[in-house]
Design brief:
Shape: elongated
Largest sheet: 6 strands, antiparallel
Length: 1325
């Protein structure tokens, strides 16, 4: 069978690989379980003792070696549990999962029950322990509660135990006195376990419960138990894909079915129960966290609930697969496994009454904590919502309602005050009713999930308070007698079509499972319907693709995102960066050379089918929600398989056994005859038929070292089959198993090697070898963690550099952009997450949710002590300040970790430590100080040793240096990730006005003022104190600064002021902007302006400030090679005259830059003001055009400006209009003339003293905004004034050149140009 698990090797057809019995070893006696954290203050009955694997059959399976220690620990996670006759001893069921080294999974299903202890040594040992405990703790001689053990069986108990009636007074009196061997009967837990290659949970549960029923029944079973165990191990095959199979338990037949090749893979864990436990909204939120590969910790007292939720969530990921640590049941003794600095999905068993706030987790910055018992979850910060979430939840609710599960919206269940509960859609019937149904379900082995309706529910609630009836139910179940009336309520009687209640319930669960999964699968089919169009397949063959994989881009992320609806982007931009998505795309690329991965084949088939029915034009994406249309069809396929059984396995039969062994004793599981269970039959038809072909397939598989796992079992091998599972106790995968023959170098072998090494990011650690606690293994595992984190850092910084440099290259005129602001933000958020994981690795003691912020706080406390001791250093600071005052300029801002920490602490908008740490990272990255700050932080080795264990990443010197070097490389690009995110905070700005002292007074006697504007607003007009050339002011974040308005009121004797530039610095980010001026402010000098609008540019840091930051990119808005405007430093210095060709090139470049600006996404565009009024902007280029051939010679010592020509031309037009000369012109030309006159009049009548060049700038900006420039030019050219003011050779008098200019300017008519308020202040048009 091609679809089966490869790890099944020689006999993949077998339904079960092992049958295991775990319990107490009477030869070794009672051994305390050190791993469980022994508490000697507890009563011996409440302590945990070591369990052992008493027997397992067969001894070993070649294709799935038996791991004794792992199976023992997972069968009895809390060891042995003891009880007396006074305690509840209901059998319990749970399941577990083991992920093997090749990434394939094996499932275990465990039925745990209590068996009377017959060994007098064990009883006397318990008696001795109890007497010692009484002597040491006399106060505990009369306990207030029963002696019921709180160890493994309590933790396994579901809500049934909560519903158990309180023991009667007689029982209580026995229990109160503890354990007395002469009076009490001692019971110990025993576990029966089936280990299978596929998760047929319901079938295994029924088989094991029938085995237990056989030993508790008053009469022996029809056949010896060996017959049934031998049958399921060797004679029951796996059902073929798309078929159903019936086999026989001890008393009743059992049916299981397997989906066909085109259906969703098998998933037998009840999804309805997962929704009941968490609620619809909580489950969707948890599902989103899983997709985004966050750290997920499930928390519950019930092991089966941990497994159900974990399997439910991973099942819903189709067509993607969880690529990281997956341990649904993590014993409490191994809590330190959570120290793994990687994404994980783990389940942790909680102790009854444990407060969540006391649970110290190593890292919580990116943790989704799921408290299953209290029905609530805690989400990480900055959490994007799943697309169309309200409609998605509504559709899930509709499916659940059809199956009688009632969502109660807006009613969060009770949670502990320590957490944030986000549950707005919990599922329940009624609080009391839920307990009733769960109790009845457990008592009757009924999987109905408590979904009873109407009179049945009312009747059940009525009966719930009756303790006697509940005891009767439990008793009748154990003895095999059915109470028909109650079984009718529970669904255990005959159903429709002669099917039993069990079969009806399994059918109902299977239909609910598949319909819920189809709703989830449909969302991905809709969202990724066109994903193939964005897959980049550039390699000619598999070998070259594998060799160059890390250097290749496999998916056009930017184009894909630009094709998605806006509401989807926050989620999708994060999701396409995950390992599971990368694996999915890699599998798609490899499918052109190899057989398609099963999940991919099913998904592509669904997309092809959807296209047939729903032809959609490419690139037209809609965010309208599309419901799943195949719910009925998918449920019918399952119903047909279960109604019509395709295959029936061989019936259990008598074996060739020794007579007299394994005699039946009621209540005791017999010692099985191992010789008949160790080997399979040699005459089985199905085993003979498939063995030869399978051996051939197996040899081929081993020769190629390629794993073809079953579609529902395969753990994606690409990147990471299963990511490192813990800081310790994890087995390192040293090498591939030796092939049968020396293999050829095949594509598959390359593929496997590549999957294990090239893409692993340190993820080539495998699942836990729970028994191997040797220091060598622990050290090697920790070392692999360190290497993995370093590799992840290298890849993240490389990706950030490549994407950012690609974008900046576009802005300099090369290539195409391949990053959006959304992508950039996603990459930075990913870097923040990586730094948190690095700082969480190997912590001595966890303090707060953010390990990085905690470290910074320790650093701050130490530095503040040092600052107090060095108070005298203020004198030298004062001297330094005086020195800077002598040479006017921006004072140097030295890098300071402390200063940046204080800036973040002063931001009241950030409420959490995780938020503060992320803000600090963003600020340091924007300042190009991230590497330098972290190096400074880690230079305090004493502090690092105090906070971190020896194996921590931050204490590995070589790796730490490489890590800091990778971060240093980010200094080569400019980020505004702090300024653009924290847009509402108050920021201190420092402004300095730098005059040209050689040609004018440094000070002015008039009253100067300034107004600073940025992309997010302006500061308003601020008066500058007289005789002061610098000022500091606080203002809301202005974003990137764009303009400064500088002016004065022209009062006093020295009113004329020649300003070289204005410098403004953001005191938090350190960004300094230079606003060049080089012009006079004053009446009767230059163009008579008292006010100028200066356009800013980000200034390069000084050599002293740039120390330790590395290099930076050229300025973003222009190419370094372009001609730069010369600052005017003298009255006659306006003489820089470019050639005609340079002027035309400059105009073309300026218009081209504006067009590019509008072709970017709106949030990416930056400042249009710089493109209009900057040093090589449109205004400057047109100014050069109008100045070409302009007769600006001084007439009677008066300089003539272009604005003078415009005014004369307008005056001519107005006078011609009054004389009637323009009445003969065409109507549009007349309207254009009127508009030009109106605009010039409005500019001249403004209250602002902006000077003639300022007025010309304003006219060009307004003309560009209102798309009038191409219409105004012909009027100016036709005006007779041009002949007096321009030479014959002027560009403005060349008709061909003017027509070309008009054509170029007309391209701006397609764009909605908006002007900054600082440019058009005071203009009413």
């Amino acid at each position: 069978m091609s679809g089966t698990n490869a790890a099944s090797g020689g006999a993949p057809c077998r339904f079960a690989h092992y049958f295991v019995i775990c319990g107490i070893d009477t030869e070794t006696g009672l051994e305390p379980d050190e791993l469980a954290g022994e508490n000697f203050e507890q009563s011996p009955l409440k302590r945990t003792f070591k369990s052992k694997v008493l027997a397992h059959y067969p001894e070993n399976v070649e294709w799935n070696p038996f791991d004794r220690d792992a199976v023992n620990m997972l069968c009895m996670p809390k060891g042995l549990s003891f009880r007396t006759q006074a305690d509840a001893r209901e059998p319990q069921f749970h399941s577990f999962l083991i992920t093997r080294e090749d990434g394939s999974r094996t499932y275990g299903f465990v039925h745990t029950f209590y068996e009377e202890v017959t060994s007098s040594q064990i009883c006397s040992a318990m008696q001795t322990l109890y007497q010692m405990h009484q002597a040491e703790n006399p106060s505990s001689a009369a306990p207030s509660s029963t002696s019921s053990s709180s160890s493994s069986m309590d933790s396994l108990a579901s809500s049934l135990d909560e519903a158990d009636p309180v023991p009667s007074s007689s029982c209580r009196s026995v229990a109160c006195s503890g354990y007395d061997a002469s009076r009490d009967t001692l019971y110990v837990s025993k576990a029966l376990c089936l280990i299978t290659p596929m998760p047929f949970m319901h079938a295994c549960r029924r088989f094991l419960s029938q085995l237990h029923r056989a030993i508790t029944a008053p009469s022996p079973p029809p056949l010896p138990l060996e017959s049934y165990i031998h049958n399921i191990l060797y004679e029951v095959p796996l059902p073929p894909p798309g078929r159903s199979l019936k086999f026989h338990g001890v008393y009743e037949p059992i049916v299981c079915q397997r989906p066909g090749p085109g259906e969703l893979p098998v998933a037998d864990f009840p999804l309805g129960q997962t929704f009941t436990l968490l609620g619809v909204e909580n489950l969707v939120q948890l599902f989103t966290c899983t997709l985004l590969e966050m750290q997920i910790l499930l928390y519950s007292q019930d092991y089966q609930q941990l497994m159900t939720v974990a399997e439910g969530i991973t099942t819903l990921l189709f067509p993607f697969q969880w690529q990281h640590v997956y341990v649904p049941i993590l014993p409490a003794s191994l809590l330190h496994f959570l120290d793994a600095p990687v994404p994980y999905l783990m389940g942790l068993q909680s102790k009854e009454g444990t407060d969540r706030s006391k649970l110290e987790l190593p890292q919580e910055a990116n943790l989704c904590f799921v408290d299953i018992d209290n029905h609530c979850i805690e989400l990480p910060e900055d959490f994007p919502q799943f697309p169309n979430k309200p409609e998605f939840i509504q559709e899930l609710n509709e499916v659940l309602l059809r199956f009688g599960i009632y969502p109660v919206e807006g009613t969060p269940l009770t949670s502990t005050p320590a957490f944030t509960t986000t549950n707005t859609g919990s599922i329940s019937t009624r609080k009391h009713g839920l307990k009733s149904q769960q109790a009845l379900r457990e008592l009757e082995d009924d999987g109905r999930n408590g979904n009873l309706e109407g009179e049945q529910l009312a009747m059940l609630e009525l009966l719930q308070g009756n303790a006697t009836l509940e005891k009767l139910q439990a008793l009748t179940k154990r003895t095999g007698v059915h109470v028909e009336a109650l079984r009718g309520i529970g669904g255990g009687g005959e159903g429709l079509g002669g099917r039993t209640g069990f079969e009806e319930e399994e059918l109902r669960n299977a239909k609910l499972n598949v319909q819920l999964r189809e709703v989830f699968a449909c969302r991905f089919t809709t969202m990724f319907a066109d994903y193939e169009a964005f897959v980049i397949q550039s390699a000619p063959d598999l070998e070259s693709w594998l060799t160059n994989r890390e250097q290749m881009h496999n998916f056009d992320k930017a184009s894909f995102l630009s094709d998605q609806p806006e509401p989807y982007l926050p989620f999708l931009s994060h999701f396409i960066e995950t390992q599971m998505f990368a694996t999915f795309i890699d599998n798609k690329i490899m499918s052109q050379w190899e057989e398609k991965e099963p999940l991919l084949r099913v998904f592509d088939g669904r997309i092809d089918k959807a296209r047939l029915y729903n032809v959609r034009a490419p690139n037209l994406r809609s965010s309208n929600y599309q419901k799943c249309t195949i719910l009925k069809e998918s449920a019918q396929a399952i119903e047909q398989r279960l109604m019509k059984i395709d295959h029936t396995a061989i019936h259990p039969h008598l074996l060739d056994m020794k007579i007299g062994q394994g005699k039946y004793v009621q209540g005791f599981f017999p010692k099985l005859q191992s010789d008949v269970l160790s080997v399979g039959p040699t005459n089985s038809k199905w085993s003979n038929r498939t063995a030869t072909a399978q051996r051939r397939k197996d040899r081929h598989r081993q020769r190629t070292e390629h794993l073809t796992l079953d579609n529902d079992l395969k753990e994606q091998a690409e990147g990471c089959l299963v990511l490192l599972n813990s800081m310790a106790f994890w087995e390192w995968d040293k090498a591939s198993p030796p092939p049968l023959k020396p293999p050829k170098k095949s594509a598959s072998a390359c593929c496997l090697k590549y999957m294990q090494e090239a893409r692993s990011l340190g993820k080539n650690l495998r699942q836990p070898k729970l028994s191997d606690l040797s220091p060598a293994v622990i050290a090697q595992t920790n070392w692999k963690f360190v290497e993995g984190l370093l590799k992840e850092c290298r890849m993240k910084t490389k990706r950030m550099l490549v994407e950012k440099m690609g974008r900046e290259a576009v802005e300099l005129g090369h290539g195409e952009a391949n990053i959006t602001g959304l992508e950039e933000n996603t990459l930075i958020a990913s870097l923040c997450d990586l730094l948190e994981r690095i700082w969480s690795h190997g912590l001595q003691v966890k303090q707060g949710k953010s390990a990085l912020w905690s470290h910074l706080m320790h650093y701050q406390a130490r530095e503040e002590k040092l600052e107090q001791q060095q108070a005298e250093s203020t004198v030298s600071n004062c001297q330094e300040r005086r020195k800077s005052d002598l040479s006017i300029g921006m004072p140097i801002q030295r890098p300071s970790v402390m200063q940046d920490i204080r800036h973040i602490q002063s931001m009241g908008e950030i409420k959490t430590d995780v938020g503060r740490a992320r803000a600090w990272i963003r600020l340091s990255l924007e300042k190009k100080l991230l590497s330098q700050h972290l190096k400074r932080l880690l230079s305090h080795t004493a502090l690092t040793k105090k906070l971190y264990k020896r194996y921590a990443f931050l204490r590995c010197e070589d790796e730490k240096e490489q890590f800091l070097f990778h971060l240093l490389s980010l200094n080569t690009v400019d980020y505004f990730c702090f300024t653009s995110v924290f847009t509402t905070i108050m920021i201190p700005y420092h402004a300095v006005i730098i005059p040209i002292k050689k040609l004018s007074n440094a000070m002015t006697t008039s009253n100067p003022w300034v107004c600073v504007s940025g992309e997010l607003g302006d500061s308003g007009v601020m008066q500058i104190p007289k005789n002061v050339l610098e000022m500091t002011f606080d203002c809301h974040n202005l974003g990137k600064l764009t303009t400064v308005q500088l002016g004065h009121d022209n009062s006093g004797l020295l009113a004329k002021w020649l300003v070289d530039c204005v410098m403004v610095r953001n005191e938090i980010t350190g960004h300094t902007y230079k606003f060049p001026c080089g012009r006079w402010l004053g009446k009767g000098v230059d163009d008579g302006s008292l006010e100028r609008v200066l356009i800013g540019e980000l200034a390069l840091p000084s050599a002293e400030e740039d120390c330790g930051r590395g290099c930076r990119t050229p300025d973003m808005q222009r190419s370094p090679g372009q001609t730069r405007r010369v600052s005017i430093t003298s009255m006659g210095g306006r003489g820089y005259k470019p050639t005609s060709g340079q002027i035309q090139d400059a105009i073309g470049e300026a218009v081209n830059n504006i067009c590019k600006h509008f072709h970017k996404p709106e949030k990416e565009r930056g400042s249009l003001t710089i493109l209009l009024c900057g040093e090589v902007g449109l205004v400057w280029a047109l100014e050069q055009f109008f100045n070409n051939g302009f007769k600006s010679a001084r007439l009677f010592q008066k300089t003539v400006f272009v604005w003078d020509f415009v005014e004369k031309a307008v005056a001519y037009m107005e006078s011609a209009d009054q004389m009637g000369d323009m009445q003969e012109t065409t109507e549009p030309l007349g309207l254009t003339c009127v508009s030009l006159c109106r605009y010039v009049s409005a500019i001249n009548s403004t209250s602002r003293n902006i000077g003639k060049d300022g007025k010309f700038q304003l006219l060009v900006c307004l003309g560009a905004r209102d798309h009038l420039l191409p219409q105004w030019l012909p009027l100016l050219v036709e005006c007779p004034v041009i002949q007096r003011m321009y030479e014959e050779s002027a560009l403005l008098r060349d008709r061909t050149t003017v027509n070309a200019l008009i054509a170029v300017l007309q391209t701006l008519d397609d764009f909605p140009i908006t002007l900054e308020a600082s440019l058009i202040k005071g203009i009413d048009l």
